[in-house]
What we know:
Elements lengths: L6 E2 L8 H11 L11 H8 L10 E2 L3 E2 L1 H9 L11 E3 L6 E3 L4 H8 L8 H10 L6 H12 L1 E2 L8 H6 L5 H12 L18 H8 L7 H10 L13 E4 L5 H8 L11 E4 L8 E2 L9 H6 L7 E3 L9 E3 L11 E5 L8 H7 L4 E7 L13 H8 L3 E8 L8 E8 L4
Parallel strand pairs: 7-8, 7-12, 12-13
Antiparallel strand pairs: 1-9, 2-3, 4-5, 6-14, 10-11, 13-15, 14-15
Helix pairs in contact: 5-6
Amino acid sequence: MKSHPPYCEGAVKPFVPEYVFDELDKLGILNSEIGDVNLRDAITRLFGLKEDDEYVYRASGTTTLGLMQRAVMARRRNGLLDWYVGDREEGGGKETLIPDPSEITAYTKLFSPTTHLPSALRAYQFSAKKNTLRKSIADHLTSRYQNTAPGLLPSKKQSQSHPHINPYLTFWTLSCHLLQWAGPWLATRKTTISHHVLPVFYHHFGCVVPSFHALWVIAKLAQPNKPSKENVKPILDIGSGNGYWTYMLRRLELEQGMKKLEVYPVDDGTSEYRAMWVPDTIRTSGLEFLSQDHECPPYESLDLGGNGQSFSRPKLKPQGGRNCVLLLVYPQAESDFTGPVLKKFRGDTIVVVGTQNRNGFTGFKGEDVDEWVEREGLGFELVIRIPLPSFCGKDEALFVFRRKEGS
Length: 407
């Protein structure tokens, strides 16, 4: 029987989320030579696991920490790292491209908390040489970028001066170097392979990395139009999984004048996670939650996990999500989830985190969520689409929709 969350199944000591942030600095992962980092040992230490841990991680495949580490050490054997397979320019056939460390670093730096994303994307594309893998990746990422909502992305000053620690981002950056991943290109939509690292990350952190830019956009969307007269808009994290996005939103340091966020994690518990980051997940489906006429009870934590960081969640009457921000992180395409929830929502702001290359892994088969929203005529328009840190062979983005005037 699992403990009351937060917990990490099989840990030798109680899982205190805030201790993960403290321990991360001690690990010094990104200050070490990449080849010297043992990913299994780092996960074991960070989450307080036994050295002979045999937990079976289940996601798109199954693995253990031992199998994962052996796969990492196998490097390119058996096509494990064939993320970039393209047509040969001469002689026909296929060729496998291998990014060098500088290409990988250039990609991962796009998502540094100190990076001004719009400027970084422009510089990333401008500095890429013709007929290179980096140029293909840069062209793809910039072609998908969209921002018609000024003031939501963090400014240069906010990015450069804002303190932000994100364990998932640190481990994702490490994985990019270990697995020779320099970002998605157009052909990523055809990628069918994955890696043993993914189920481990999925269980401990979640399906996709919440970048500082993404968290900041969501926090800004939740701010009222009239701060002196209106309350902050509740963020409904529907399909919250293990709660990592909720935790990071609650932990996000805001600017002076911004109102403290109120995040409601909602999940029916269909998917299994080894680590649970928040204690207050509302166990129901998204449709049932939005349909509730009764008030959702308040919840108050005296401490996020040992560092004196408290959070509170006032009582809420969902009413279809009126005056709320709907957050859907990695809604799977296999289930009939995304469409009904989007149609049920009565608020004015929707944030979806998912694939942006029509690979059908999240949202909808054969089309991206922005195409579906437009086709269904829900009265929303896409105002932001920004790239997110994508795991090897994936192509993730943050989509922001706002209700059109008169809809």
